[in-house]
Amino acid sequence: MHYVSLGHACQVAHQLKRLGLARETMFYDWLVTQHEKLLKTLDFRFINNLFQDGYTLPENGNYLIECSTGLSFYPHDFRGLAEKNRELIDSQIESVRSKYVRRAERTYDVLNSGVEVCVVRHFFAEPLAAVQSQRDEIIHRLGELYPSTQFTYLWGSEFDAAGVDFASGKIHHLPKTPVWQGDDTAWNRMVDGIV
After folding, report:
1. For residues 105-130, average pLDDT
2. How far apart are the first and last CA of the chain?
3. How does pLDDT run across 95-105, given as a tens digit for each residue?
């Protein structure tokens, strides 16, 4: 079985790697993927346009927004982000673009493989009221784009959803931590029994 992170941030990829579930780096592993941007990019038709429309540097924050997708890239891909050094960032665009095109092609191939794929998404601080519809939209979009693939899902949230009845499966509690890597014990519990 392949495990594919759909973000929302790099904690998911880090934990999949720590748990020995990640075989290789996928497209969303080191990006921040807001829900709308995720749905928009799951078909991977954007790959030829990646960074062709430029990027923006928000006034506040240590990241850049790629204009064709709206996805956020961070300092582990671009040196000079903290300083907003456009010359240094521009000098890295082609190598980062090439790396992410390869990752996009790899992720597309796995999602379109027709084999068993476990999709993992951490909703972080998204209100639980919004999580159900977002999960349904992700499930629908993946089924629409990749009908021959057998998807299973692992969902996580910083909020404890134990008392909430969700039709499309359990939301695992992954409490907020002071470090970006997350709570190893909570992630161990989430995958316990499936690996």
Report:
1. 95
2. 10
3. 999 999 999 99
pTM: 0.92
Q: Long-range contacts made by residues 65-74, C-beta under 8 angstroms, separation at least 24?
A: 69/37, 69/40, 69/41, 70/34, 70/36, 70/37, 70/40, 71/31, 71/32, 71/33, 71/37, 71/41, 72/31, 72/32, 73/31, 74/10, 74/30, 74/31, 74/32
Tens digits of residue pLDDT in 165-174:
666 678 889 9
Structure tokens at 122: 């951490």
Which residue has 């992954």 as its token pair? 174
**Sequential DSSP letters for 83-141:** TT-HHHHHHHHHHHHHHHHHHHHHHHHHHTSSSEEEEEEE-TT--HHHHHHHHHHHHHH
Average pLDDT over residues 71-88: 94
